[in-house]
Amino acid sequence: MTTRRDFIRNSAGAMAGIAFVGCDLLAARDAQAQAGGTVRRREVVVSGRRVKTVDVHAHCAVPEAMALMGRKAEPQSLVMGQDRIRAMDEQGIDVEALSINPYWYKAERDLARQLIKVQNEKLAELCASQPDRFIAFASVALQHPDLAAQQLEEGVRKLGLRGAAIGGSVNGEELSDPKFQPFWAKAEQLGALVFIHPQAAGVAAEIPRRLKGNGGLENVIGNPLETTIALSHLIFEGTLDRFPGLKICAAHGGGYLPSYAARSDAGCVTFPDRCPKPLKKRPSEYLRQLYYDSIVFTPEALRHLAAEVGSGQIVMGTDYPFPWTKTAVDHILDTPGLSDSERAAILGGTASRLLRIKA
Ligand SMILES: [Zn+2]
Q1: CATH number of the domain that 343 lies in?
Q2: 7's torsion region: left (phi>0), alpha (psi -120 to 50) or beta?
Q3: Contact 284, 327 (CB under 8 A)
Q4: How far is ligand 1, taken at its centre, from the CA of residue 251, in Å?
Q5: Over the stretch 306-357, which tens digit does the pLDDT of each residue have?
């Protein structure tokens, strides 16, 4: 009898060790339990009810796929191991929606096909080993849009992945470019959540000189700027009108866009010739149909994001293993002005619905 695991292993030739990630995680859990050293799992309760918390912004790496482009996982904590569940338990994260930041956008078609196959199968294997703790976004080779559409469909339908993770631009091209429409059409058709994560290289490639110096500006400013630009093009170029059923989640609270949304509306009033495409809504209204992670650091920023986009559009994110925050849960619990049902939705209810996570 050929098991699914055998199928995956055999179908990928050089993927020796595909089962090891899952087994490592299980072994780690058992070893911890036997040693009596199990980390106390934080169980999040809101108004007396246990909430299943979901982290939509959790990174990982598949070394076997990276090796195909001669790359190594950095930091090492991107590779799934025993520390992962311990950190989740400590922080009160029940489910991580894993994603991998694109490093393959320069790969030619055959390599991109092979790499994504290895990576998505490994992600599926990993999720299957701990189905109550992990789900994953499919990786797609968006530089080959028709291939990306196929990869998304296969990832969702055959491998049980829950959407796609993409960059904020593709080799300098905007996500609103008509060439990417086959991908957007497929995502809309499947009802799959598309997680847009910026890459410092996206903006830094265009304005590198201005982002040099102290502060890590290519990341702290460049990443949210990349998201701001990406979402703005999707609005102003009519992509969101063309595919009204798209479900998009933007990393880092949507970058700067929700902080200054009214300027996009005012721009079209002040300089109407710069908004030649008639949009179906005011630009800022599109923000209320997109989703955003909660990585905005202060209660005031989260309150403002909720005011601009609606609390029902916000989902929890940590950016693990990058140590931006260890208090994602408390950030949501402690932000004044949210009702308990809004907190429960941000902590996991909304993400569970979008990502088809069982209650
Ligand atoms: Zn991130």
Answers
A1: 3.20.20.140
A2: alpha
A3: no
A4: 7
A5: 999 999 999 999 999 999 999 999 999 999 999 999 999 999 999 999 999 9
CA 197 / ligand 1 centre spacing (Å): 6
Domains of the chain: total? 1
What is the CA(137)–ligand 1 centre distance, in A? 13
Q: Which domain holds residue 275?
A: 49-355
Taking every pair of C-alpha atoms in the chain, what is the biggest distance, in angstroms? 69
Q: Which pTM value belongs to this model?
A: 0.90
The protein residues having their C-beta less than 5 angstroms from ligand 1 (an ion) are 319
Partners of 54 in beta bridges? 95
Ligand 1 centre distance from Cα of residue 269 (Å): 35
Asked whether the beta carbons of 255 and 225 are under 8 A apart, the reply is: yes
- Asked, for residue 237, whether it belongs to a domain, the answer is yes
pLDDT band at 202 (very low <50, low <70, confident <90, very high): confident
For residue 13, report the distance from its CA to the centre of ligand 1, in Å. Answer: 31
CB 163 within 8 A of CB 137: yes
| Cα–ligand 1 centroid distance for 41 (angstroms) | 24
